[in-house]
Specification:
alpha+beta; two-stranded antiparallel ribbon; 27 helices; binds zinc ion
């Protein structure tokens, strides 16, 4: 019998036949699919015909169909519905997949064909998108080191494998430091803490086999503890332990690892011919160069710092009123900010919740997509990987566009967070493919017969992930490798963060934020409070973030620092870091940057995207209508349909007529002068 993962899927829209697949099918399917892909690649590399776009690049785009099918099913269930067997498979499969992709990039005959096409690109008569895919394919090989020879190639392999070892060690040290520290609390120490923090401290104590409650370095416990604990001495002890993660001396100390990682990254960039690692890393990003990132961050830094210093002065007053004659310290900030928040915005989540029903928020997200882009959503009855998953067919003017799957509820088998993934990406060549897009969230599941209610953050997450989904659904390009969300990291959050703005359109909340029992719309006063609370303490949040992003950028610009801690201190002095605020992630525990390559000299990208989403939504505001048809049409034509088929900067400029400025972001964060 054919393995159901590899068979032709005769289901509606060729959705994977989840009800026919069992865990035992994965391992043999992986083996077969990897071997089949490799054989296809070999055949392309060994083709006796001279290289052409069709027999090389197009052939590579079409290769690996079986592998794509297996991966799409496996990664769906591994992330959203895991079990022991699937976890074991994942441990087994990840190194095989990375070896598989290394083997393709190391195929010298294949690279020879790609390089030959690249050299002759002007004579090939390529379309813009074909030229783009050739450029990206060639660049991918070069950046992986395919053009290196002899000693350089060997050194590159050694550098990469050492970096992988160091990244793992960095993460494990951090986990060990976080697990090793806890602070027992007496019953008297609990005074002033709200019930949920007390409960969390008690269950943390139980988990560690302690008599009473404890504070640990888990973010979900230490953050509210620092926010609510009135005892300054306890806050200081806890904060100092939190800040020292990865820098406690001994075997788990990450400081020398950070120095070695930075030196090796510099070496890697230089082997490939770049001035430094930041230049290498930013080449593929919309920002393009370290200077442009620095310029953006500094434009935001000054107003954020000014706001933070004003807030600090007010909180220092509150410190005096509490009889403390000392400067405001990092362990004071969250506590006094929480006091101010309660005084300024008495927003009660419990009051808000009945107005945010999951069903109505899904409806709101769909209706906005209908008003903006004419999309229609019809429930689809198909077997999926879990009974909580729901599917819709997405059409426009009666034409099938995509399948959208929503998997909204938390469960033990799902990893935390929220994400959007494509089980299949849109493409026209070599084969027409329509997208299958999944949004996965972790909303609390209601008891039977009760409506599912969301927090405001949950509702924003739903819109955010749906914005990513639209990027896939509306994709209209030739090649799968540049479709949907296959764009630069500092561009990919634009559609998602932009879509969050429609949740805040008063007309949308008036229509869809209705009370679960009475059906009454959310009162205007409550809505105003929600919107006002959104900019609270933004000085602090922006400062701690931008400081981290600047340190990340400077670490990778120029010569790698021999002593990263000294360099970090120097950078912070240089920008006038307020003394009561620390970096959101200091070097010894900056996992975004040191656990792997993902966000190294890329931590800025969240803010880069926010600059664009604020500026892009302003286009609708300037048109006087959040659903302005002409602006929506441009958004789809120049951004949502284009994927990575053109440079992000060109796409944005085509949509907006210019590149974004920081004004809309500063206004959105309440930091505008
Ligand atoms: Zn996102």
């Amino acid at each position: 019998m054919t393995n159901p993962l590899l068979a032709d899927w005769d289901t509606p829209f060729r959705i994977a036949p989840f009800d026919r697949i069992s865990d035992e099918d994965f391992a043999p399917a992986f083996e077969q699919a990897l071997a089949a892909h490799l054989a296809e690649i070999e055949a392309i590399a060994d083709n006796p015909e001279p290289a052409s776009f069709a027999n090389t690049i197009l052939a590579m785009e079409g290769a690996g169909e079986a592998l794509d099918k297996v991966l799409s099913v496996f990664f769906s269930v591994a992330g959203a519905d895991s079990n022991d067997a699937r976890q074991a498979l994942q441990r087994d499969v990840s190194p095989k997949l990375s070896a598989h992709s290394s083997a393709i990039y190391a195929n010298a005959r294949l690279f020879g064909r790609v390089a030959d096409l690249w050299a002759r690109r002007e004579e090939l008569g390529l379309s813009n998108e074909e030229a783009r895919v050739l450029y990206l394919t060639h660049r991918g090989f070069v950046r992986a080191g395919a053009a290196l020879e002899g000693e350089d190639a060997e050194r590159m392999t050694a550098v990469k494998s050492r970096l992988a070892v160091l990244g793992t060690a960095f993460t494990q040290n951090l986990l060990k430091d976080e697990a090793a520290w806890y602070m027992p609390l007496s019953e008297a120490d609990l005074e002033g803490l709200p019930g949920f923090v007390v409960d969390a401290a008690r269950s943390a104590g139980e988990a560690l086999g302690q008599e009473g409650p404890v504070v640990t370095l888990s973010r979900s416990l230490i953050t509210p503890f620092l926010q609510f604990c009135p005892r300054r001495d306890l806050r200081q002890t806890a904060f100092e332990a939190w800040a020292a993660r990865g820098a406690n001396g001994g075997e788990t100390d990450n400081r020398s690892i950070a120095a070695e990682v930075l030196a090796l990254r510099e070496e890697r960039a230089k082997l490939l011919g770049y001035a430094d690692f930041a230049s290498y890393k930013l080449e593929t990003e919309m920002a393009g160069t370290p200077d442009r990132v620095r310029e953006l961050l500094m434009q935001v830094w000054e107003p954020a710092r000014a706001q933070a210093l004003r807030d600090a002065a007010e909180m220092e007053e509150m410190l005096r009123e509490d009889g403390i004659n000392d400067a405001l310290q990092p362990w004071d900030w969250r506590y006094y900010a929480e006091k101010r928040r309660r005084a300024l915005h008495d927003l009660d989540e419990a009051e808000l919740k009945p107005y945010l029903q999951l069903e109505r928020m899904i409806e709101a997200a769909f209706t906005c997509a209908n008003r903006l882009f004419g999309l229609e959503f019809k429930p689809l009855d198909v077997a999926l990987y879990h009974p909580d998953c729901r599917a819709w067919e997405v059409t426009r003017d009666g034409q099938h566009l995509a399948v959208f799957i929503g998997d909204y509820f938390a469960r033990a088998s799902k990893r935390s967070g929220a994400w959007c993934s494509a089980m299949r990406s849109q493409a026209k060549r070599p084969k027409i493919e329509t997208p299958i897009v999944v949004n996965v969230c972790n909303f609390a599941k209601p008891s039977k017969g009760k409506p599912a209610l969301l927090s405001y953050d949950d509702a924003r997450t739903l819109f955010h992930e749906f914005g990513h989904a639209l990027h896939q659904i509306l994709s209209d390009v030739d090649f799968g490798s540049v479709s949907g969300t296959s764009v630069a990291r500092d561009f990919v959050e634009l559609p998602s963060q932009l879509y969050e703005h429609w949740l805040e359109v008063p007309r949308v909340l008036e229509e869809f934020a209705t009370h679960a029992e009475t059906g009454a719309p959310m009162p205007k006063a409550l809505l105003d409070k929600v919107l006002a609370a959104a900019t609270f303490d933004m000085g602090f949040q922006t400062v701690e973030y931008v400081a981290s992003a600047l340190v990340d950028l400077e670490f990778h610009s120029g010569t790698a620092p021999g002593d990263p801690m000294a360099r970090q201190a120097e950078i912070l002095r240089g920008i006038g870091m307020p003394q009561a605020i620390t970096m959101r992630h200091a070097t010894p525990h900056f996992a975004h940057v040191f656990a792997g390559d993902g966000y190294s000299s890329g931590y800025y990208s969240y803010m880069w995207s926010e600059v664009m989403d604020a500026d892009a939504f302003a286009a609708f505001e300037e048109a006087g209508d959040a659903f302005d048809p002409a602006t929506a049409e441009k958004l789809e034509r120049f951004i949502l349909s284009k994927g990575g088929s053109q440079e992000a900067e060109d796409l944005y400029t085509a949509f907006r007529g210019r590149m974004p400025g920081v004004e809309a972001l500063l206004k959105g964060r309440g930091l505008a002068a």
